Amino acid sequence: MKVLFAGYGSIARRHIMNLEKICETRNEPLVIDLLRHAPSETPAGIRQVFTMASDLDDEYDAIFVTNPTSSHYETLLSLIDRSDFFFVEKPVFDSAHVDIAPFIQEGKFFHVACPLRFSSVIQWIRDNIACEDVLGIRSISSSYLPEWRPGIDYRQTYSARAELGGGVEIDLIHELDYVCFLLGRPTSVQSFMGKISDLEIDTNDIALYIFDFSGKTAEVHIDYFGRAPMRRLEVFTTEETFVCDLITAQIHALRSGEVIDLGEQRNDFQIKELEYFLDCLESRTMPDNDLEEAVWLLDLAKTGKMAS
To answer: For residue 90, which of 195, 170, 191 has the smallest C-alpha distance?
Structure first.
């Protein structure tokens, strides 16, 4: 299998490591090329490094778009003829007001990263709680941006810079994604977003959403300033209340006292997502979170409103 990575940041390196594991398990040879605008030595495990899309001399089974969000759209345009399958890191673009018509072609398949859908906690909720029994859910993701990337000045990252497509509302779009994955598209939404901390950024550091799902409700809180990492989902049903910790992969049923320990690490669901993508590639099936779905969610996250 021949794949190309456009961008070589931390998430690209993680995907490459996981791809190597998966292909080794499946006994499938893997060749990886890299498109990186900054000239550099060829990293271990990479066959060849290109600095411009026009220099590519091959077609690929899959292309991974893992460069800064602000470059995703132009990167896809420049590479659309080089593969049929594309894995695009979240958020899909820095604006929802883009023309995706050039990408909607027969035989072109897109998956936009949504790893929390593949976490054991979200899968357990989806498999064990009937949607009609859910009265409401509450989701929170809170952590301290300067500690996200050790050794890197947070003020220079895309998260801190609006021109690079940063901002908590799209950086932590995973929470909105899994809420809609569990409950479907909301019928209405109220929101607040802004910058309220002393972080040296020009992006939003908090976003709050309240959704109505025809009688069910969801509250989402995401921020950049929480000093203790927290990623939690509370599910209120007619018979039970579940408190789910997505960091420790534990679920507490408050009424019964049962504790469900799913024993999962972050990389486990990252691997599951890649396996899903490769299965779609093999069967030539459009993944669930395609470009149109991802752009709809991006618009919801950025505006806090339902598209008219």
So the answer is: 170
Give the three-state DSSP class for 253.
Answer: strand
CA distance 236 to 137: 6
Name the strand (E) or helix (H) holding 273.
helix 266-283
Strands of the 259-261 sheet, one edge to the other: 188-194, 206-213, 216-223, 134-144, 225-237, 241-245, 250-253, 259-261
Report DSSP letters for 104-167, one per residue.
--TT-EEEE--GGGGSHHHHHHHHHS-GGGEEEEEEEEEEEGGGTSTTS-GGGSGGG-GGGT--
Q: C-alpha 234: how far from its chain's center?
A: 20
- Give me the numbers of helices (H) and strands (E) for the chain, helices first please: 7, 14
Tens digit of each residue's pLDDT (9 = 90 or more) over 252-302: 999 999 999 999 988 999 999 999 999 999 999 999 999 999 999 999 999
For residue 287, with 0-12 CB atoms within 10 Å meaning exposed, 13-18 middle and 19 or more buried, which class applies?
A: buried
Q: Using CA atoms, how far apart are residues 233 and 246, in angstroms rounded to an integer?
A: 7
Neighbours of 273 (CB within 10 A): 22
Q: What's the start-to-end Cα distance of the chain, in Å?
A: 42
Half-sphere exposure of 198 (CA within 13 A, CB side): 0
The answer to whether 136 and 217 are in contact (CB under 8 A) is yes
User: Which residues are bridge partners to 48 per DSSP?
Assistant: 33
Residue 118 corresponds to which tokens in the numbers above? 């593949």
pLDDT for 8-43, tens place per residue? 988 999 999 999 999 999 999 999 999 998 767 888
* pTM, entire model: 0.93
Phi, psi of 279 (to 5 degrees): -65, -40
User: Residue 3 is inside which H or E element, if any?
Assistant: strand 2-6
Q: CB–CB of 117/174 below 8 Å? A: no
What does the alpha-carbon distance between residue 43 and residue 160 come to, in Å, rounded to a whole number?
27
